[in-house]
Structures are given as C-alpha cells and as structure tokens.
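Re: beginner question about structure tokens

> Can someone show what the tokenized structure looks like for a real chain? I only ever see the sequence side.

Sure, here's an example I had lying around. Input first:
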Amino acid sequence: MRYAVSSFYWILLCFFIAHVDASDLEPPNMTFIPLDASKSEGENTEQWSFNGAEWWLRNTNLPSVSVYPATNDSPTGAAVLVIPGGGFQFVSMSNEGWPIAERLAAQGITAVVLKYRTAPTPRSDDDFFEFMGRLFSGRIDPESLRAQRARAVSVAKADAQLALAWINENAAQYAIDSSRVGILGFSAGAMTAMAVVLDPDGGDPPAFLGAIYGDLGSVAPPKDPMPLFVAIASDDPLLGHQSFGLIEDWHGAGGSTELHWYQGGGHGFGSFSKGTTSDRWFDQFTAWLIAEGFTTQAM
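And the corresponding structure tokens:
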C-alpha cells in the first residue's frame, strides 16, 4: 500500500476537531476482553479523550476486544471484526466502533470491536492537541514518521490477527459459524484489515473484507481473494483522489468486488449522517452480505 507521509497524516487532520472541555462528560462504558497479556507494553496506559464530537481511545497498549452478540431472534451465524480508524494515534470508538457494532448485532450479526495498540501520545489533552498540530505543520522529521507508520501498521495487524483467532476459538459460545467471519475496517482500520489479508503467514484469513474509506492503491491480492466491499466518498480530502488499483487488482484476480464511490461524504462518515448518499453505506454493506451468502435474513 502506498501512502506519502503527508497524505498519511491528513487522516489525522480529517478527525481533528476543536478541543472542548469534557470535564462534565463521561466516556462510554465498554467492556473489553484482553487478547494476549504478553502483548502489553508495560502498565495499561489507555485513556479516553473527547474531541468536541466523539470519544477517542488513545495510548492503548493492550490489545482487547468488545463483543456485541447478535440481538435479534434469528442470529445469522455471521461475525464481523470491526476495526475503527484514527490514524494509529487513537481509536475512533464512538464513530466507527460501538455504534457500528450495535447496528450489526441488531441484524443478527455478532460484532467484535478491536481495540488495537496505538502510537504513544502526550498524556494531557492540551499537550495531545498541540502534538497533533505539530504533525500537521510538518515539524516532525518525515523519516521518523515513516518508521512510526510502518511499526503502527505491523502492530495493529498483529492485534487484528489475535482478534480473528479469538473469534474462531470462541465461536461456539456466540453461535458463530467460523466460515462466516469477516473484517470491516475504517480508514486506518481498513489499512489494518488489508494488511491482515495480504499476510500469507497470518493464519486463517477472514471470509470477507469491508474497507470503508481506506487505501485504493494497487496490491497483490491473496490467492483466491475473499469478497471485497469498498465504500469511499469522491470528496474525501485524504483518499478521494486515488485511482482504483485495488479494485482492478482484486477483480483481476477473480475476487468478487463491490465499490461504492459516493459523490459526497468526506472522510470519516462512519456513523455520522452527512446528508449525502454515503449515509446509506451500512444498508448497502448488509445487503452485500446477503448477496454473498454470508447472511440470509431480510435486512
């Protein structure tokens, strides 16, 4: 996957909203199950931050998952590993995490939200937002940023692979059919998901892949590529200017491929209503799961 350093950090700018005092607000109450204590990098350092519109988890150093079992009367047996974005600086939980999981669970699909390890950031919110400003201004050495990005992708990929293994190991408990376990990734989460499926030594691959406003650059698809669903807005300031190398490569390798190229929606539309056709992406994704045979009930 090909990202220029400046483009990579546009992902952060797209999420960067004026910092407000959140002292009277409470972070969401999510229950997490640790994946592998050996992956912890010292004491648990994670913290919630509110950016004026959504809650972020940052300084995460222990990979874990939050499970949302299928809640309707007819579980489909399908499961989705949800990987939120956040430029590897934070995890966008209240946009691309639990709201997505709750919608999937209501459709009879067990959802598992991944909290992956992120790059370390300043502890105080004020220092954190000042740090983000330095990233945008280009005052950090590009080579250092490249090295950080490479490590971030590798670490997140390893955590996602742990999560997939955990889902398969616990499939019976949640009435999951292991042949119907896929990944849905957003932005940096889509990058992570693609890294998982392109790793030939990563264990059992997911049955399907949803990539929401992720990289569309050329790849060498895996052998027998799994069905791929892609949604992105043409006015995405980070990724909307790309070619369709990913789509062409996947389709050329014989993989079932569906692309939604919305006129508007920007970057990070996730759970947010933008008043554009991108608001329909979730319904289109679940309809695609039916068409591909991963779920059978009417959505």
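Each token stands for a local structural state, so reading them left to right follows the chain. The CA atoms of residues 80 and 111 lie 5 Å apart.
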